[in-house]
Amino acid sequence: MSEQGPAHAQGETEDTRHDRSDDATPDRLESDVKRRHPFDAVLMISFGGPQGPKEVRPFLTNVLRGRRVPPERIEEVAHHYELFNGVSPLTAITERQAAGVRQRLHTRGLTLPVYIGMRNWHPFLGDTLRQMAADGVRRAVGLILAAHRSYSSCGQYRDNVLQARAELRAAGLTPIQITYVNDWHLEPGYIDAITWQIHQARIQLSLAHRKDAHFVFTAHSIPESMPAADTYKAQLLQTAAMVAQRLVTKNWTLVFQSRSGRPEDPWVGPDVNGYLRQAKADGVNAVVVSPIGFVCDHIEVLFDLDVEARATADEIGLEMVRASSVNWHPHFLDALANAVVDLIEKYRGRRPLTIVSADAPNARELPPIITSL
């Protein structure tokens, strides 16, 4: 049950395919802010999370809409949230990320409001877009808080935005055009933040194992049949390889976590717990686990790694430390701001061109079932 947050490349409007360029200069702090650009705001898009015990099951109802999930599995996942008092840190962390992006844009002379829209809980995407429309926003930069592309991590959110835009049109309001930033899984600030978090974790290992520790990069598993599954894994490998290069190590592996769905359906692997057991059997004494597929320490990180993977490591006698997600690390916030600025610079003096219908999502997503308690 993903807190990941398309098959299409980012850096496109949700209703257009435009050519992408690599003309961003290394120093974007001195951008020409005097030329006009077409954007009124930034929309940061994420998964959402409950903020108390009473919200857990309504939240999960929204997450699982349209899926046949056994009641016992729902209760199992609800228990994961209840271990943390029913509060997902995702919302608070996303708010800090948005504040950091807003401040960095302001520093560069871009006084754009930054809105937050969630897929599964408050503030819902539809509510956010209605507020943006009421505030007079017509064109916004879209920033999905997932670095690696798959349908579940990006495409699903873009379809949700399309549907929210259709609802604006049906209500007699002008739909807001959203243009998405380019891929940022290799943005230097993002890589720097991951590397820094890993360094902070590694020093917690015993001196005897610190030097030869293996680095285990984790991401949310997805069905092998999901659109863009190959792109998703390839981008994760690219991120992991660049981080490993910064760490000056060849001792690293990409694994996956948080698998859900039917047991008979193939999902991307290997699973983190299976890998830890195999690593111990192969003579590995210590690992640093880094959740590179997530941008904040939400419940799937806190439970699947800090509880389940930790239990596996303790059981087999494997020393394990877990690096924090990038969360609100300053270099990560720099990376997000850079992605926004790159898109703005691309469209200075011109507008993104609409060439297809704005209201035809790739897959029809059910709206959130429960929007209030």
Please describe what this structure looks like.
The radius of gyration is 21 Å and the shape is globular. Strands 2-1-3-4 form a 4-stranded parallel β-sheet, with helices on both faces. 46% of the residues are buried. Helix content is 40%, strand content 12%. Helix 10 links the parallel strand 7 and strand 8. Helix 6 crosses helix 8, helix 6 runs antiparallel to helix 11 and helix 9 packs parallel to helix 10 (299-316). The chain has 2 domains: 41-183 and 330-346, 3-Layer(aba) Sandwich (Rossmann fold); 188-322, Rossmann fold (3-Layer(aba) Sandwich), CATH 3.40.50.1400. By secondary structure, it is an alpha/beta fold. The protein has helices spanning 56-63, 71-82, 90-107, 125-134, 151-170, 188-202, 207-210, 229-247, 272-281, 299-316, 330-346; strands at residues 41-46, 114-118, 139-144, 177-180, 214-220, 252-257, 286-290, 319-322.
Class per helix and strand makeup: alpha/beta
Beta-strand share of residues: 5-15%
List the domain count as a whole number: 2
Determine the fraction of residues in helical runs and give it as a percent range.
Answer: 40-55%
Please trace the helix and strand order, writing H or E for each element: EHHHEHEHEHHEHEHEHEH
Largest sheet, described in full?
A: 4 strands, parallel
Mean pLDDT metric: 88
CATH architecture classification of the largest domain: 3-Layer(aba) Sandwich
Count of strand segments = 8
CATH topology of the largest domain: Rossmann fold
Terminal-residue CA separation = 22 Å
What topology, given as strand order, has the largest sheet? Answer: 2-1-3-4
Low-confidence segments = 4-26, 29-34
Number of helices: 11
The radius of gyration computed from the alpha-carbon positions, rounded to a whole number of angstroms, is 21 Å
Estimate the global geometry from the Cα principal axes.
globular
- CATH class identity of the largest domain: Alpha Beta
